[in-house]
Amino acid sequence: MVKYIYTKLDRNAPCWCGSGRKYKQCHMAFDDKIHLAEMKGYEVPSKELLKTPADIEGIRASAKINIAVLDEVASRIHAGMSTEEIDQIVYQKTTELGGIPAPLNYEGFPKSVCTSLNDEVCHGIPSPEIILQDGDIINVDVSTIYNGYFSDSSRMFCIGEVSQEKKYLVDIAKECVEVGLKNVKPWTLLGDLGAAVHKHALENGCTVVREIGGHGCGKEFHEDPWVGYTTEPGTGMLMVPGMCFTIEPMVNLGEADVWQDEENGWTIYTQDGSPSAQWEVQVLVTEDGYEILSY
Ligand code: MF3
Ligand code: CO
Fold first, then answer.
1. Using CA positions, which residue lies closest to atom 12 of ligand 1?
2. Do the Cβ atoms of 133 and 176 come closer than 8 Å?
3. Quick one: which ligand is closest to 125's CA?
């Protein structure tokens, strides 16, 4: 089944990407290259996953809001506040800048942001009852819709004095994202990126959650491909310029196993109760590497 379907345009027709250039001077060689890779058996992105210059402008504008919202949280987060207050900050700042918080009502998610503390791996739901304590580590995962375009990134925050081991975990989780970034290279495989991230975590005595990963993001909140971080080298989708996805490994200090809160249907915890940390970056694959869209 051919996935990369493209209409063979006339060489002199305007390119499908909307650049205004002739097809032969724009995406013709590119289309042929993907087509050939697919014939050779590589998993390639469908055409819809490739962002046009106009899409990229739109995603950049969305990401600008996403970053501003995270900066606002960073300047105001403190011990003694509730995660509900973080939710209010995210809602207010996002809407003030003309955006919509993407998590709000997404598949029934009740809040504007995910706030995941300590042994919570991801999808923590803000609540007036959850008060940040000295020594907590928290992931604040912000996603924005602006003008129909989606952005998504998250950061860790250490509240007051945190233990050395929690600080260590937060640093390793960030290094894992940086290893991921170094492996965003066009015409290489996503499975190689995931394997490199996993290796870095394991070498530093940490584990990576297997079941949850990153995702394509831009025209939808969650697009293909799924981006795992415990993948095998030589597997996965070919990274192609114009693809946009997140790198967001969930790194645990203890075992990799997790469980899901059945009551709220969202929050994921570590099975052994050990702390978990996650940073998330949204990237665009470019001709010579990557562009960070949101971090
Ligand atoms: N940013 C999170 C992710 O991509 C959002 C999860 S969906 C939500 O995994 F509704 F829980 F926000
Ligand atoms: Co995400």
1. 103
2. no
3. 1
